[in-house]
């Protein structure tokens, strides 16, 4: 460990399995320490996720660490997530190192030579943050007790040892078997690794804490490690790390949507950046559902085709599943549709990948909704963009000329048929480019985060209600920035009330007066 690191306090959140709530708890601790006046950074060595983000410097990183950085009140940067894996097929992923794509690698190859090669990037990023921040909140991945993966570990106990960080082990008590998973994890890690685990948190608890107390006493007696918190099950709008949350979503319209707009998002097999729709879900007059079965598409107020990590494969899915035909039928009935990034590409006449940049397919016919052709190139375009709304058509009429911000992550370039006008004039890294296309009630853009623009979102929802012949039942859209801050503070308050912060501070070596 670098000698400059010794003044930095560290806390690592590991789990007994995936989806125990590590990311959200790490965000909670980032916000708690930020509220206490510390300069805090999150860190996760390796993320596997389809939800990614582009930093101000143009690097790509996992959304979970972006959310944690926002909770910590700092600008996201790729050192916070030096390795990002984006699944692109059944056995392979695109590997992003320090924000830059390195191409696709099979799982077998990655969990060997490639993973060993990435470790120096992890250590450099980690120590850089440890040297610059007062507190680093580190997140693990999956479980530290996966014996088949431990020899090439770059995200769990190897990171804890490298950072000399105490570890809090988190178990999901809602799914059952939490006591056994804690004991089993502690039995399977090495003795020196077990010594790093200084506390246990049971997450997602429902019920009366007094009835759980005998189990907590048993765990402390059995393991010798204190239980430092029991966090209740909660629903606070913190963005999900990956598509696990979508598996529980009902894709059918509710029986009555008289007070809410019905927004149907096509759930593609390789859906990415579905956090684009969080801003719509936050609106009280909007119901967002994810559709895989054409029979469940119905007649929504708005259809959305989201981003994709494998555009050609997902486009083929639309054709073969029958959803594509349903979309086209609804378009002829003037049902509005919006495509974002890969979804935008699919709405064109043709998608070509002659160099097999993204898949084994060379070209697939598009849905033919928008007059354009897309071709893939090896160079990935990753930028934050800001610009002006050019069009005055459809829902844009109420916000023409206003500013729009977002970010772009794509390897395809779309060429509009002659005579078609774009939606936006964007500036990225000092260069201007035109983006987006509209035909009738169909719209497409490369801009992720487009619905986070409060004025644009309000214009869209007002327009959709007007199409129903009604006035929007709420007076104004909620500010996304204000909602996010409120959610972080609510999360911090909840965790403060249900963990022993004084004990955790002592574990981290933080003085009471620091």
TrEMBL record:
InterPro entries: Class_I_gatase-like (IPR029062), CobQ/CobB/MinD/ParA_Nub-bd_dom (IPR002586), CobQ_GATase1 (IPR033949), CobQ_N (IPR047045), CobQ_synth (IPR004459), GATase_3 (IPR011698), P-loop_NTPase (IPR027417). Keywords: Cobalamin biosynthesis, Glutamine amidotransferase. The active site is at 341 (nucleophile), 448. Residues 11-234 form the CobQ/CobB/MinD/ParA nucleotide binding domain. Pathway: Cofactor biosynthesis; adenosylcobalamin biosynthesis. Residues 262-454 form the CobB/CobQ-like glutamine amidotransferase domain. PROSITE patterns: GATASE_COBBQ (PS51274). SUPFAM superfamilies: Class I glutamine amidotransferase-like, P-loop containing nucleoside triphosphate hydrolases. Belongs to the CobB/CobQ family. CobQ subfamily. HAMAP family: CobQ. Catalyzes amidations at positions B, D, E, and G on adenosylcobyrinic A,C-diamide. NH(2) groups are provided by glutamine, and one molecule of ATP is hydrogenolyzed for each amidation. This is Cobyric acid synthase. The lineage of its organism: Bacteria, Bacillati, Bacillota, Clostridia, Eubacteriales. The gene is cobQ.
């Amino acid at each position: 460990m670098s000698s400059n690191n010794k003044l930095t306090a560290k806390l690592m959140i590991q789990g007994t399995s995936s989806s125990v709530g590590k990311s959200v708890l790490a965000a909670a601790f980032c916000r708690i320490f930020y509220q206490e006046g510390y300069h805090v950074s999150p860190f996760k060595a390796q993320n596997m996720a389809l939800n990614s983000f582009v930093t101000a410097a143009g690097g790509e990183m996992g959304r979970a660490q972006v959310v944690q950085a926002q909770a910590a009140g700092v600008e996201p940067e790729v050192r916070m997530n030096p390795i990002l894996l984006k699944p692109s097929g059944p056995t392979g992923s695109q590997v992003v190192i320090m924000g830059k794509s390195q191409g696709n690698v099979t799982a077998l190859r990655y969990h060997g030579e490639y993973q060993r090669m990435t470790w120096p990037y992890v250590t450099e990023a980690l120590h850089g943050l440890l040297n610059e921040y007062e507190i680093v909140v580190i997140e693990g991945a999956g479980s530290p007790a996966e014996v088949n993966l431990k020899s090439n570990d770059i995200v769990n106990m190897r990171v804890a040892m490298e950072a000399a960080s105490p570890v809090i082990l988190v178990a999901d008590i809602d799914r059952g078997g939490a006591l056994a998973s804690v004991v089993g994890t502690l039995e399977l890690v090495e003795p020196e690794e077990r010594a790093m685990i200084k506390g246990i948190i049971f997450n997602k608890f429902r019920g009366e804490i007094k009835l759980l107390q005998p189990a907590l006493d048993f765990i402390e007696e059995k393991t010798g490690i204190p239980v430092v918190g029991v966090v209740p099950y909660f629903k606070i709008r913190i963005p999900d790390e990956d598509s696990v949350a979508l598996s529980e979503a009902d894709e059918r319209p509710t029986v009555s949507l008289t007070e809410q707009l019905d927004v149907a998002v096509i759930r593609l097999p390789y859906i990415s950046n579905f956090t684009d729709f969080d801003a719509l879900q936050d609106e009280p007059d909007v119901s967002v559902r994810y559709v895989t079965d054409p029979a469940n598409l119905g007649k929504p107020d708005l259809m959305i085709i989201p981003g994709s990590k494998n555009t050609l494969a997902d486009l083929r899915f639309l054709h073969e599943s029958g959803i594509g035909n349903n979309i086209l039928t609804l378009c002829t009935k003037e049902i509005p549709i919006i495509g974002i990034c890969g979804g935008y590409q699919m709405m064109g006449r043709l998608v070509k990948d002659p160099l097999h940049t993204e898949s084994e397919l060379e070209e697939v016919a598009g849905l033919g909704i928008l007059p354009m052709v897309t071709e893939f190139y090896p160079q990935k375009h990753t930028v934050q963009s800001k610009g002006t709304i050019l069009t005055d058509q459809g829902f844009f009429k109420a916000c023409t000329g206003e500013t729009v911000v977002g970010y772009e992550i794509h390897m395809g370039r779309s060429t509009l048929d002659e005579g078609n006008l774009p939606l936006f004039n964007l500036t990225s890294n000092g260069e201007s480019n035109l983006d987006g296309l509209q035909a009738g009630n169909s719209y497409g853009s490369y801009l992720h985060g487009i619905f986070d623009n409060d004025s644009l979102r309000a214009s869209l929802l007002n327009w959709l209600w007007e199409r129903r012949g009604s006035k929007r039942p709420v007076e104004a859209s909620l500010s996304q920035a204000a909602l996010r801050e409120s959610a972080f503070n609510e999360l911090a308050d909840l965790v403060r009330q249900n963990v022993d912060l004084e004990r955790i501070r002592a574990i981290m070596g933080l003085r009471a007066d620091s």
